[in-house]
Amino acid sequence: MVAQHRTPCSRCLHQTGAVIAEQGDVLQMANKPMHQRLLEHLNTAVVVLDSQLQMVWMNPAAETLLAVSLVRVKGSTPDNMTGLDDTLINVLRKALEEQHPYTQREAEIINAAHEALTVDFTATPISANELLVEIEPRDRLMQISREEALIARQEAVKVLTRGLAHEVKNPLGGIRGAAQLLERDLPEPQMVEFTRIIIEEVDRLRDLVDRMLGPNRPPLQAPVNVHAVTERVRALLQAEGSAITLSADYDPSLPEVIGDEGQLIQAVLNIARNATQALNEQPQPDSPQPDAAPYEITLRTRARRQFTLGHERHRLVCELAIIDNGPGIPESLRETLFYPMVSGRAEGSGLGLSIAQGILHQHQGLIECDSRPGHTEFRLLIPLAGTSGDHT
Prior knowledge:
The chain is of the alpha+beta class. It contains 11 helices and 13 strands. It has 3 domains: 28-137, Beta-Lactamase, CATH 3.30.450; 141-213; 222-283 and 293-391, Histidine kinase-like ATPase, C-terminal domain (Heat Shock Protein 90), CATH 3.30.565. 44% of the residues lie in helices and 25% in strands. A hairpin with a 5-residue loop joins strand 3 (102-110) and strand 4. Helix 7 packs antiparallel against helix 8, helix 9 (226-239) crosses helix 10 and helix 10 (261-280) runs antiparallel to helix 11 (352-362). The chain starts with 9 loop residues before the first helix and ends with a strand.
């Protein structure tokens, strides 16, 4: 009987190669010193620099944070790699020269992806010629702190408003009733006009208090197309005859949110209408600046992944932004922007933003605002159904 020689199939060769590669990775990992394996598994970004502040080594967390690979930037200096300013470079040099650790809190750096980051970093000399730098991102923690403060302020305002509404509406009802009784017994018909004024003003105050309280019913829970909301708002603003340019920048892959379409339209309309009215009160760019762009409002939608709202982390959040290129919000108003009766316009009631924030809270979301001359952005953040994750 003659033995037959069988040629291995390509699938078997592929599987064998994968096993050999995996074993090689395991062997390579096992051959690494324990300290290097520990550093590579840290969530904190760690960078090692030489005496010339040139890159010697970084762990995977640093590669992710700085958006670069060690192979690409080995031998580079931090100012070329991350855009550190002279102040931070001097801190690194000082730590190495004095052989003393230094910590810099909330430093601003720009990574290779041109993303601005706020970080804490500590520079620790490990020898006369080597410097270990630990980099801890602060943006997410600062964002969580801002959101918690915003939510806490909104809850305090809500409690205050409800108490005020109760105290105001009771005497208003008494005043209205007394005016009606007085109207019946007035001897002269022309004096009825005065009681009518009293009744009308009482009704106006009552309506104002009701508006301060915001929506008086829980939101509906139904699938809502966010772009149907934004297009409805655009149509309403265009129907009002505004001269401001309204543009759209949508993410078509954004899924539906669960909520109340009518309330979401009201929230977006309040913010967009505020922006339109504020821009209409400003003079359009004219001849002294011929290249200046006319005022414009942009409605933009994006998906934000692994986003934290309050203490809860969501895998996917809908971000609906209302952006204008006007002069910006005065610094004095930014901290109290969402309080009732606070307005930067002489004709404004100061209720639109407060009501919008209340609507977003009913949808487990919130509104953030960033403003500087030439760019004001309100971001409505709404968690998408079934995307809640861990608590931070």
